[in-house]
Records
---
Amino acid sequence: MTGRYLIYTPVESARDEKRFDATWRKFVAVCRSLHADGLSYRVELNLTGARPHVLITASGKAIPRKQPAPRRLLPPPVPAQRCRDRALEASWFLPENRERRNNNTSYWGRHQERYRELSGMAEDVLRAEMEYWQELETLNRQREHFKPGRTDETAFADDEVAA
């Protein structure tokens, strides 16, 4: 494949800076596109003539571009158990639960970073954090309820124990 691209530039680029910038962006876009397609190209600049221009001559066999991966509209769901744990953690650090909290438990030994983060938060931020995780847990339960193929009979099938 061989192709030519002719891009005209403004005669007095110092006066017409916006058009010059637009032309430059167009030139860069064409070169990037040719490079992405795996084509070789040659650039000829003619900036002194009555009609200044850039001539790009491309040649080679185009390689199909890799299609970008589809974007996810929603982030992956946070498990309801993790939401419940986060809400409980945040509630432990509220002033009314100070007596219940034991900072030396094995749980906080394993989660030192989260402990430091929560102990440094102000009360109103902790309340907001707790409400956020509780709401997210509720939303996750609702998401489970509306899954395709789920009926009222199968909604609570996990809770039943086989005898």
---
Amino acid sequence: MTFRLTLPLFFIAIVATSCSNMQADAEKACDLMAETKELMPQIMKLSMQSAFGTEAEMSEASDELSALEEKFEDIGNQMEQLSSGYDKDEFQNYLLENCEVAKELKDMGEALQGIGDL
């Protein structure tokens, strides 16, 4: 009798732990996406400077862009680690439901894709 009661409780504990881990990982992912979003205006500015500035401005902007590229790569690696333990679609849907920045970045990406299709 005790075994019958223990088994369902065990499964409930696993499901609850899994959900809380996804929640914690999604919160970390959301923070990383917010950091990415904050860096975007700087990247746009530096991209313009590296293409149209003076030689000194172009060189400095290029160096700063390289540093930001490394930061984005690190963020990408962290995002990959956070999501690796989950079904890709499930984690993405969880983020879209629970992270405002994820929604904003998705909309921004879709808008840029629409512009590229013109």
---
Amino acid sequence: MMMSEDIKLNPVWVRYCSNRMEDWLSWSRKVHIRSYIELTERFMELHPHYIPSGTESNLILLDKMLMDRDFIDSLTDTGIKVWADSNLIDFVRALDIYSSRYPEIKVIANLFKRRIQWLDRVYRFARAEIIADLRNSGRQI
């Protein structure tokens, strides 16, 4: 996925990636990230129609990269609307900014690019649960 001048990045995902990058780098350097990628892809192949229960996917890599409820709770109502209206491609574009500098992030971004349909479907289920929780707590979405 090449970045071109006319693609606008989602500001919420850009901020999210910027805020989480240090933690992701620390974590990905402590574990064997390629093993996590391999296990995640095996899970995807064995469970092509997987649906998460609740706001966690039960996949460490996916939860680590996408399910930061504290960040979402810190957003304004406008920020939450921008986040809720976005898709996983917006996240991958924001993550891709770091791919050329950090090889471990490139490996993760490449997984998201290869498996975007599966990951986006799982993410949409988890996002719907988060949106319902936010509405129940009085947030305007």
---
Amino acid sequence: MSAHRAVTLLAPIVVAVVLGPLVAGVAVGLFAAVSSLFDQLASFSFSDDGVLLVLDVVFAYYIGWPIALLAGILVSLWMMRGRPSALVANAAAVIATAGFMGVAATGVLGPVEQFNGRNNFLFTLAAAIVAANGCWLLTRRFAHKGAAGMK
């Protein structure tokens, strides 16, 4: 295996783990800030929203790294066969989220992840799809060039 091929196959994994939780955390944080901006009963100030944005990103990395890693591996496996697309990125996010949350719901990963797996599936799935689309929009030029150069 050449160095170019190895880098091309590792790139989706690195991008998913580094950018995926960041995109999801920022999206959740911005959604919370905008919803509190338009909520008349909101008790948060803009400084509180900034702190919550940082906490959203930290928790997105804490909870989302295994899902991002699995989704990156799935996209990398797809790149062995053909060029990736937004559909591939979204399918990888759905499969990775369903797989991780399914295992978490069985209790194998501990009681906290069991609770998370049973109660937060749809929220985590939506965040994973937002992260997959964000990563795809940020890296689609490089993904097409890299996959084309592997053949």
